[in-house]
Amino acid sequence: MISKPLFKSSLSSKPAAITIRLLMSVLGGYGVASLSCVLLSQTLPLEQVDAILVATMLSFAVFGTVVIRVFSVRSLPQVIVEPLMLSTALYLLTVMGS
Fold first, then answer.
1. Structural domain contains residue 92
2. Which residues cross the membrane (predicted)?
């Protein structure tokens, strides 16, 4: 009798889904991280140089978080929509703040 795997992975059977997740993690992660860096550098109550340095360091954590989130979500449309919505919200907050 052939045993079934304990966890059914939809990623290993669909190369297109992996490609979309990879693209969204890189491009969406970059967009969210860069916009969060801009927003944080404008809003942190520090001197300008210090605010930029802190925002840049925090943007690496944001990028990693987006990458992890993209690969942990099961729904492929949600993978596409979440980084785009977050980037849009960060962009609007940045534009309204300046």
1. yes
2. 20-45, 51-72, 79-97
**Residue 3 belongs to some domain of the structure:** no
User: What predicted TM-score, i.e. pTM, was given to this entire model?
Assistant: 0.81
Identify the domain containing residue 72 by its residue range: 15-97
- The domain total for the chain is 1
Rounded to 5°, the CA angle 58-59-61 comes to 70
Question: What's the CA gap between 35 and 28, in Å, rounded?
Answer: 11
In three-state secondary structure terms, 34 is helix
Q: Are 20 and 76 in contact (CB under 8 A)?
A: yes
More confident position, 4 or 68: 68
Name the amino acid, one letter, at 65: T
Q: Which two tokens stand for residue 28?
A: 């969406």
